[in-house]
């Protein structure tokens, strides 16, 4: 238990350092952008006195290190500071409003990818050199090659216009049915990557001596492939799947725009455009913290899948 606790503490410490570094870089880059944030906050009709007061309130006339100190204080005491657009709300309150939508989209896209990838990989790995193997290879390449900017509108045209079985995308769309097309759009690339990785990993595992020994003991082919082969093949898949799940949070920006969904990616893009620095930095911090937690979960999943890793 102490070894596991030590591992968790080390990973959490490294993750905290990563989040602080990312937040610092984001703070520096956002302040290097041209333009005055008060112009976006007050509009063109503001007087010089109002602009000066806005700059004092937001500490924009202070040196950059002092502004960074104010940023850290607001982050610790006020949840990232007040939004420049909705002054009565903190940045984290704005994120909390849209985070469930992004989490639902990323989670459902990941589920779609795994549900597609594992059966296809099993079919291809157990039938090497056949037409089934070739077809799975083509499908995985298509999933990786076709951009979401093409897949999304095509799915909308097919299943919302030609065959209207799913709700048309928009801000008013809700329910599980509204997640189907965005999840397929976002998860298709991950499905292609996982299929190719799982197929290659399974082929290698099924050539191992212990697989031949399992067959010699009279185990069914299903038990040999799924219980023994797939479990060993999951270790490299967890690495790829964890990294790609983190990437899905970034890819959600395009998918949210295509399907006119609110979410963390759209909020980050809008906050950068209007120079709403507290919200933009808080969005980046939330994404960075999510990536750290995902990688920690992947590390723990290694030990559950492969006992040899747990022993090490």
Describe the structure.
With 312 residues, the protein is mainly alpha-helical. The protein has two domains: 2-91, no CATH class; 92-311, MetI-like (MetI-like fold), CATH 1.10.3720. It is built from 13 helices and no strands. The chain has helices at residues 2-32, 37-42, 48-57, 64-78, 91-125, 131-145, 148-162, 177-205, 209-216, 221-258, 264-273, 277-305, 307-311. Helix 6 (131-145) packs across helix 8 (177-205).
Question: Percent range for helical residues?
Answer: over 70%
CATH topology of the largest domain: MetI-like fold
CATH architecture of the largest domain: Orthogonal Bundle
Radius of gyration over alpha carbons? 24 Å
Helix-strand topology string: HHHHHHHHHHHHH
Coarse structural class:
mainly alpha
CATH H level of the largest domain: which superfamily? MetI-like
Biggest sheet descriptor: none
Approximately what portion of the residues adopt beta-strand conformation?
under 5%
Oligomeric state: single chain
Uncertain runs are none
Overall residue-averaged pLDDT value: 79
- State the total count of DSSP E strands: 0
> Whole-Å distance between the termini?
13 Å
Per DSSP, the total helix count is 13
Count of distinct structural domains: 2
Regarding CATH, which class of the largest domain? Mainly Alpha
Question: What tags apply to this protein structure?
Answer:
312 residues, mainly alpha, MetI-like fold, 2 domains, globular
């Amino acid at each position: 238990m102490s070894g596991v606790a030590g591992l968790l503490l080390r990973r959490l410490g490294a993750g905290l350092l990563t989040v602080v570094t990312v937040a610092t870089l984001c703070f520096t880059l956002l302040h290097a952008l041209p333009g005055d944030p008060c112009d976006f906050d007050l509009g063109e009709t503001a007087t010089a006195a109002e602009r000066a007061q806005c700059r004092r309130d937001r500490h924009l006339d202070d040196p950059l290190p002092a502004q960074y100190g104010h940023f850290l204080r607001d982050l610790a005491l006020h949840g990232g500071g007040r939004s420049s657009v909705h002054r009565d709300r903190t940045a984290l309150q704005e994120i909390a409003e849209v985070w469930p939508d992004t989490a639902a989209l990323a989670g459902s896209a990941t589920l779609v990818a795994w549900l597609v990838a594992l059966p296809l990989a099993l079919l291809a790995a157990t039938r090497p050199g056949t037409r089934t193997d070739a077809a799975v290879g083509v499908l995985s390449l298509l999933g990786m090659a076709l951009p979401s900017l093409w897949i999304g509108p095509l799915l909308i045209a097919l299943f919302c216009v030609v065959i209207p079985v799913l709700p048309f995308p928009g801000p008013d769309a809700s329910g599980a049915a509204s997640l189907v097309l965005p999840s397929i759009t976002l998860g298709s690339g991950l499905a292609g990557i996982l299929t190719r990785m799982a197929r290659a990993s399974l082929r290698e595992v099924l050539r191992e001596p212990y697989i031949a020994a399992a067959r010699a003991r009279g185990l069914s082919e299903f038990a040999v492939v799924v219980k023994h082969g797939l479990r060993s093949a999951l270790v490299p898949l967890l690495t790829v799947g964890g990294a790609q799940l983190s990437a899905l949070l970034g890819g959600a920006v395009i998918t949210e725009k295509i399907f006119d969904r609110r979410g963390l990616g759209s909020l980050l893009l809008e906050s950068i455009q209007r120079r709403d620095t507290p919200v933009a930095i808080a969005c980046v911090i939330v994404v960075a913290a999510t990536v750290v937690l995902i990688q920690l979960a992947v590390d723990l999943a290694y030990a559950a899948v492969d006992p040899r890793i747990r022993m090490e």
